[in-house]
Amino acid sequence: MGYMVEGVYHEGDDVTKTLPSGEWKRSSSAVRHWIGEDEFPAVAARYHLYVAWNCPWAHRALLTRAIMGLDEITVSYARPNRTDQGWVYDAEGPFSDPLLGVQSLHEVYSRDPMKYTGRLTVPVLWDKAQERMVSNESADIVRMFGACFDGPELYPDALTGQIDDWNALIYETVNNGVYRAGFASTQEAYEKAAYEVFATLDKIDAHLAENQFLCSDTFTEADVRLFPTLARFDVAYHYAFRCNLKKLSDYAHLWPYAKRIYHMPGIADTVRFDIYKKGYFSASEKRNPLGIIPIGPTVDWG
Ligand SMILES: N[C@@H](CCC(=O)N[C@@H](CS)C(=O)NCC(=O)O)C(=O)O
Questions:
Q1: Would residue 179 show up in a list of annotated catalytic residues for this protein?
Q2: What is the model's pLDDT at position 15?
Q3: What is the pLDDT of residues 193-232, one digit of tens each?
Q4: Cβ contact 283:289 at 8 Å
Q5: 61 contacts 142 by C-beta, under 8 angstroms
Q6: Peptide bond into 256 cis (omega under 30)
Q7: From the CB of 121, is ligand 1 less than 6 Å away?
Q8: Structural domains of the chain in order of their starting residue, each with its CATH number
Q9: Other C-beta atoms within 10 Å of 207: how many?
Q10: Which of the residue ranges 14-23, 24-33, 50-59, 146-155 would you say has the lowest mean pLDDT?
Q11: Is 276 assigned a catalytic role?
Q12: Is the shortest distance between the CB of 122 and ligand 1 below 6 Å?
């Protein structure tokens, strides 16, 4: 997959991700500037997003761009399958990079003058004027899009406590929980993570029996951050990550909630179920050695 040390790209995987207990741990993001700081004015047309359709963290950024109507922020979509060069681009077509014309994401990171060290992740928010990264942390990108541009209030003052609580629970046990289940290397670590996924989904389902959204009738950042995991659940996580006690579509309240969000203006355009399958079932020595992509399930989001 590759990683970078002081601006120089290295092939191979860094080995710090799986703990001796078999648990899987996500490394943290390193570039955390903020639109609104002196160097990064709030002018949408100045920014570009490097994403991949299948990446749920990148999906958060795409969702917020859509909800805030930030079409002026341009986007490059990587190919769904990572290679030994990491995320890569075609020379032309839907998986090309219209901005810099790079062939791989590590070329974007290499262009940044900061001499980045770390994993080569999407999303990346890129400043076209200064030719440098603003951020590679999706939570920050969501928060800054919401805060720095006109549009719906996604993190209203009155709800910050509730949103923070949901975010903390949902990040650990759902967004990252499915990865902890899917990437676990022992039975015990897998079961712990997978049971946690369903404990939280059950809790949210009960909450949604009485509430339209996570914070009663107000759509917030917490909903933005839950949705990418729900969109991938039945076509990818249920099978590929063995999160299979239930499907999303089995839930009485969570499923209608997910569909309600899907049908909000602009949201369906950020969703690509076909690409989720390709990405999560791409050939992987441990998880899918033959790279065969299942034909189902077909889920009706109508
Ligand atoms: N903390 C980052 C995590 C992003 C992330 O893990 N992205 C994955 C794709 S889903 C990635 O690009 N991984 C490449 C790698 O780790 O080499 C964020 O939320 O922005």
A1: yes
A2: 45
A3: 999 999 999 999 999 999 999 999 999 999 999 999 999 9
A4: yes
A5: yes
A6: no
A7: yes
A8: 3-148 (3.40.30.10), 157-265 (1.20.1050.10)
A9: 16
A10: 14-23
A11: no
A12: yes
Nearest to 94 by CA among 40, 149, 53, 42: 53
Task: Please say whether the beta carbons of 204 and 214 come within 8 A.
Answer: yes
Q: Is 104 in the pocket of ligand 1 (CB under 6 A)?
A: no
User: Going edge to edge, which strands form the sheet with 132-135?
Assistant: 74-77, 47-51, 124-127, 132-135
Distances (CA, A) of 297 to 109, 239, 274, 275: 37, 10, 11, 14
Distance 133 CA to ligand 1 centre (A): 15
CA distance 58 to 121: 9
State how far the Cα of 144 lies from the Cα of 253, in Å rounded to an integer.
30
Share of the chain above pLDDT 70, in %: 97
Q: What is the dihedral of CA 188, 193, 196, 198, to 10 degrees?
A: -100
Helix (H, G, I), strand (E, B) or coil at 82: coil
